Fold each of these.
Amino acid sequence: MSQGTGPGKSTDDSAHAPPLTGLRVLDLSQVMAGPFCCMLLGDMGADVIKVEPPGVGDQTRKSMGFRMKGEDSPGFLALNRNKRSITLDLKTVEGQRVLHKLVETADILVENSRPGVMKKLGADYETLSRINPRLIYASISGFGQTGPWSQRPGFDLIAQAMGGVISATGIPGAEPVKSGIPVGDLGAGMFACYGILSAVIGRERTGRGQYVDSSLLDAALSLSVWESTEYWATGKSPGPLGTANRMSAPYQAFAASDGNFVVGAANQKLWLIFCDVIGRPELKDDPRYSGAINRVKLRSELADELRPTFQTRPAEEWVNLFLAAGVPAGPINDYSVALDNEHVHHRQAVIEIDHPIEGKFKALGFPAKLSDTPASVRRHPPLLGEHSDEILAELGMLEPKAPGAVSA
């Protein structure tokens, strides 16, 4: 697939080579959305070269509020496995010359600077696509490359606020609450990855690359499937519901005698079983709750009806009773439990990575399980500029060092 050659370009044609083997990605991004996108590509076998400014590198190397052993923050380590690092000052002619040489060998470039910055550095899509017409160039920004808000600075918090997410999160009547997970950042990274891989497939037919434009605001909006649907169906903006669901009831958290748990009776069949499990068969014939539309309409009233019943048993007992009857239910785990239980261990959702300074550290595993060519950790998160000489040598711009030699 890729035009370049060298140690970073795998020639393994075996059936079990990672699926993106042969693709080279230039990661010119920082912080979360772009690095997450590039890590996803690297996990599936792409040769990801992280291009960082000299001195500080990616902002997250040092800007997080807590550290482990070394100079790099846990946030950086979490988003940058399976990458090599080269330092380039793109404000200089020499830095731009090296980047252009890298672009000749690359399939994909990902950046997340504010719109217009890359053009000033001679690293915009128009410039680089002339060097390599097969290049797939992805830009991730707060509000996209076009439109009246395109020049605004964007963070996940801002995207959640302006994209409606915060208005639909939290408890009715309480102060605004953002989603605990950075859905704008991570969503923009995933959608960029989706666009990139779609463009790779398209390039097989056309022979040309293309431009991918992903933004935090677009991601926040695109993930608001139920909320936007409710607005268009009712004409009213949906507000926060706590743990409840917009399309089903009962589908939320309840307080048991010793703590909280969640249960979801998301259809009529489950509702009827639910009523039997809680020992309230009379609710099946109650006209107020006959049908999903009525139960959603009277969601709060129904929850009030159920709360005294749930106070009669501990949470674990309720969960076991519901599961035995085939009704989805579960405990509300904090991360000490969510990351350390028999199912998560079996799914290898948490892995350990060896690092030259940190030693072994824990990281999230690979959510997509491929049967023949599974994702793997081939490289630890790189030290700043760790592979500069190696990459320059691959480009023919530096003589390879003798084995065991140390870079200055």
Note: The radius of gyration is 25 Å.
Amino acid sequence: MRFPGCPLPKRLKAARERAGLSQKGLGVLAGIDEFVASPRINQYERGVHAPGYEMAQRLAHKLNVPTAYLYADSDAEAELLLAFRELTERERSRILRTLREGR
């Protein structure tokens, strides 16, 4: 089964490559048996299978990205999620306050 239009395959691969991990390495870190880790991540990245939400959370955690990043519909939204994650709590609060006041 393919998941057309789902952004997860593209985002997962991009995050894995940015982290410098192999498919097997990421799979093992996320708790997948080492003998099936590479094929499983490969299937996720090709959109053949989609991970359940719990697995997506584990993958995101190991890749140091927000889980929402894996599901972001646009590149701009994905980039914003990554940038927001890098901010301190104080900076996040300031930006949120500014956005709320700008409405």
Note: The longest helix spans residues 89-101.
Amino acid sequence: MSRQRRPVHPMPEFVRNALAEKGLMDSYNSRPPYQRNDYVGWIIRAKRPETQQKRLKQMLDELNAGDSYMNMKYRANKPRSNPEIGS
């Protein structure tokens, strides 16, 4: 169940194929749900195929670099270490 209040956009096949081809599916899936949904919605709202491809390329580049989201700086949450208690 999604906690998002925005419409959830299903991923088009061409986006799924591009992520798989570039080996970025794990990077995509590691992003928060709102970011994944925003990316897909932003791409599919483009009216022209050229614009969709331009936006898709931006998403792929950002996922590959791992340091931005929609042209904004992004820092992934790193898993916290679980230090042993006592010793």
Note: The mean pLDDT is 87.
Amino acid sequence: MNWLHDRYCASDKWKNLMAGETLPWVLGDLQLDGPVLELGPGPGIVTEALIRYGVKDLTTLEIEPAAADGLRDRFGDRVQVTTGDAADMPLPEAAFAAVVCCTMLHHVPTAAGQDAIFRESFRVLERGGVLAGSDSRPNLRLRLFHLNDIFNPVDPSTLGRRLEAAGFGSVEVEATERRFRFRAVKV
């Protein structure tokens, strides 16, 4: 991420939006009783919120080694931090009850890479496990914010078909003007 983006994603404003508004909207009535995997935690704002939600068995997967080290320092043994690519997860098959993916998909350079993340999420979920997430919808301000940064927004109108192609069922996608959420089940 560029320096402005990195700074904003660690801000109280972003924390309040993600933890206070977006994550509750994404999770809704989803029970997070089993092992949970969070993809692309960055500075750990959603990670912290998931702990507050009561997640006891939380693993994060972060592609940036420095960010992963920061998460290890910040959360200690409360979170299992794994460094790796969500498109090729160094994690066992059927190991998680839920995968949470908040506002990171637009950082993946290609649609093929995003689809690989969906397939890998399906692989690491146990039968009946849920993939739940959100991302931003493109606008001029967001595009400017991502100058010199990867910005590959997901089209929510095609996301359902992409999740089904990865093997998911019971797919739900709900969009607002600024963001969208999704949920899919490994059937």
Note: The chain has a mean pLDDT of 93.
